[in-house]
Amino acid sequence: MSQTITIDPVTRLEGHGKITIQLNGQGEVEDAHFHVTQVRGFERFSEGRPFYEMPGLMARICGICPVSHLIASAKACEAIMSVRIPHTAAQLRRMMNLAQMVQSHALSFFYLASPDLLLGMDTDPKVRNILGLAAAKPELGRAGVALRRFGQSIIELLGEKRIHPGWIVPGGVTEPLEPAKRDKILAMIPEAHANIAMALGAYKKIADTFKAEIAVFANFPSNYMSLINEDESIEFTDGALRLIDAKGATIEDGITATRYTEVIGEAVEPYSYTKFAYYKPLGYPAGSYRVGPLARLNIVKHMATPKAEKELAEFKQLASGPVESSFHYHHARLVEMLYGIEKIEEILADSRILDKHVRATAGVNRLEGAGQAEAPRGVLHHHYKVDENGKMTWANLVIATGQNNKAMNLGVLQAARHYIKDGKFTEGILNRVEAVVRTFDPCLSCSTHASGQMPLAITLVSSEGEVLDKVVRD
Amino acid sequence: MVPDRDLSVKPMTDDRQGDELNSDPAVPMRFEKANCLVLACGNTLRGDDGVGPKLAEWAAERFRGDSNVHVVARQQWTPDLAADIAAADSVLFVDSSADSDPGRVSLVAVPSNRGCGDAASHHLEAHELLGLTRSLYGSMSAHAMLLTVGAASTELGESFSEPVESAIPRARGVLEKTVLRFLAN
Q1: How big, in percent rounded to 5, are the helix, strand and coil portions of chain B?
Q2: Chain B residue closest to A473 (CA)?
Q3: β-pairing, B36-41 with B69-74?
Q4: Interface of A with B in 150-179 (CB under 8 A)
Q5: Distance (Å, rounded) from C-alpha A97 to C-alpha A237?
Q6: Mind listing the pLDDT tens digit for each residue in A271-296?
Q7: A439 to chain B nearest CA, in Å?
Q8: Which DSSP string corresponds to A359-389?
Q9: Is the pLDDT of residue B120 over 60?
């Protein structure tokens, strides 16, 4: 008798999804899927709006990574305007994007993942949360709060708002950086360094205790894609995309926003509102790839900041080629936070950072434009078409979570097959299957441009519809 | 040195309106210096849920220029707000309530030692946030009250229901009185 296990919704994610696991008559896992179950459809309702409104509208997709949407959208608009933004504006945008990355990674690592990592996968779920973490490891809880506030404060100082700042616009930014704000940000840097050093140290101490999870948490060969600079250093805001294969060899390089749709397609599966991005020449699903912190660190050769450079070298020691287990996303996230703090300090030392020329202006000079940036969880692509008056006629967004979708599904299947035997499962097993998805830090609101909240229920149902087992979390 | 003061000795109820003020006398509140955080929560696009930010907006104007009063309004109370609470001697949480009668204004003490249950990572209740602050920042002990206004409707919209609209002046009065009591000690 076949059975289906449903985890609905999955907890400690950005957004709303569920997992189903199909068992055969012997109680062995046959298949598993991660479903994204909500849809809002920002592309459709943008039609008819003036193109210059798009950054402000599209940023509302997400409260965690609105800055990435602002940047990708503004760059698509600038392609329509055919303008190149001033150097200072580009640097200020880069700083805000890095600040967002730090706060988002802090949320993912400290609030969402650390309860599993520091309290244990089998700990009582009633204490396996941020409050339990604070009680057990207050110093790490304080570090998490401080790093999140570090990123949020920079966003607020630059853009007046912590979430959905209207400061990034087509052509640059609305206001230059004031010296007093620069000094405030510089004053926060030492504490941020101390906190990320503590977090990296704590993670490295416990990472080896998760060898069993590392072995089955989406641990398989895949392709990877991320932005990279010409000098092969990490890049979140400009640069071009590189796609590498499972052995680390470059498949395609220099993928600009304009070329993106030539090489990247989107497949649809009946069980999810999130699409499945793939590299067209390899087809679907062979052309599927991973994005985000793991992909970025697998692709780049340098971090271009001294402390992060050392951490990258240590990270790359985890494997002879690309680091495959998605469990290592956590480690990569911490290295990137360190990079972000160092790079922000470096940007503030730019002799032109206080320059007043921060915005270029132009009208409609092309009827189509595309922009791309690295969101905390991976590559983000916006593609627009407008009429002669600049009204939007079409939009398509390709989100990081869609690009990780196949790997997340395969990862859930891998973990489910490893842990679920004879059709029985415990709460700890359930949590491990969810934790596979958490390593990717997917943003389901972004991926379907919708939002949601997540209690949880997991039900074992026979093919005849009989409920055989059930675990509920309010 | 400013003497300690017990603020829980006078439960206040406006019987005509059915409002319940400071209904938890079991939690004494003691102050050594004045520094008040007004921490509001709510979505201004969801009808009566926006009453918290609305009251925060009024409080920011009422106490403009008073460096002892810090007003923060958020759609959700998130864990990072623990640092704001830790930096204040007293905190007044302001929110709508789906459990109260529409328009009912309540002011109650918030215990920081209540069980936290299965806390979410993206938003916390007032007592959870207070408990988190205590766990993270140790000896710091924020004196906390929760001011709520009973909601009639949280459907999409930027206007308030009639019961909430008419309760706002009373809620402002309670907010002002509470902040002034905090500051006076």
Answers
A1: 30, 20, 50
A2: B118
A3: parallel
A4: 152
A5: 7
A6: 777 889 999 999 999 999 999 999 99
A7: 16
A8: B-------SEEEEEEEETTEEEEEEEEE-TT
A9: no
Q: Tell me how far apart the terminal alpha carbons of chain B are, to the nearest angstrom.
A: 10
Greatest CA separation for chain A: 70
Inter-CA distances, A291 with A68, A102, A322, A434, B14, Å:
15, 17, 13, 19, 59
Q: Which CATH number fits domain B5-9+31-184: 3.90.1150.10, 3.40.50.1450, 1.10.10.10, 3.40.50.1000?
A: 3.40.50.1450
pLDDT-derived band at B10 (thresholds 50, 70, 90) equals very low
Question: What is the model's pTM?
Answer: 0.86
Quote the mean pLDDT of chain B. Answer: 80
ipTM above 0.95 for this complex? no
- A221, containing H or E segment: none
* pLDDT at residue B32 tops 50: no
Give residue A123's region: left, alpha or beta (phi > 0; psi -120 to 50). Answer: beta
CB A176 within 8 A of CB A355: yes
Residue B72 zone, left/alpha/beta (φ > 0; ψ -120 to 50; rest): beta
Choosing among A40, A131, A443, which should be mutated to test the B contact, i.e. which has the most B CBs within 10 A?
A: A131
As a 3-state breakdown, chain A gives helix, strand, coil percent values, each rounded to 5, of 45, 20, 30
Q: pLDDT below 70 — which residues of chain A?
A: 1-2, 8-16, 36-40, 445-474
Residues A104/B104, Cβ–Cβ less than 8 Å: no
For the CA atoms of B139, B140, B141, B142, the dihedral, rounded to the nearest 10 degrees, stands at: -170
Residue whose C-alpha is closest to residue B39's, from B170, B181, B178, B155:
B178
Percentage, residues of chain B above pLDDT 90: 55
B148 vs A261: CA distance, rounded Å: 51
Sorted by sequence, the CB contacts under 8 Å of residue A456 that are 6+ apart come out as A7, A8, A9, A10, A11, A434, A472, A473
User: Hey, what are B182's tokens?
Assistant: 């905090």
Cβ contact, residue pair A131, B119, below 8 Å: yes
A452 near A9, Cβ under 8 Å?
Answer: yes
Sign of the Cα torsion A223, A224, A229, A231 reads negative
- Number of helices (H) and strands (E) in chain B: give both, helices first: 4, 6
Q: Which of A402, A345, A416 minimizes the C-alpha distance to A15?
A: A402
Find all residues with CB under 8 Å of A43, minimum gap 6, and list them: A394, A395, A396, A397, A449
Strand ranges (E), A114-217: 168-169, 172-173
Rounded to whole angstroms, the Cα distance separating A96 from A447 reads: 22
Find the range with the poorest average confidence among A124-128, B115-119, B132-136: B115-119
The whole-angstrom separation of Cα A80 and Cα A258 is 11
pLDDT of residue A335: 98
DSSP state of A325: B
| Distance of alpha carbon A49 from alpha carbon A170, whole angstroms | 15
Domain boundaries, chain B: 5-9+31-184
Contact B79 A130 (CB under 8 A): yes
B80 chain-A contacts, CB cut-off 8 A: 145, 148-149, 152
Q: Which of A63, A129, A148 sits opposite B119 (nearest CB)?
A: A129
Say if the Cβ atoms of B136 and A111 lie within 8 Å.
no
List the one residue out of A313, A288, A304 whose CA is nearest residue A411.
A288
From chain B, pick out residues whose CB is under 8 angstroms from the CB of A145: 79-80, 82-83, 136
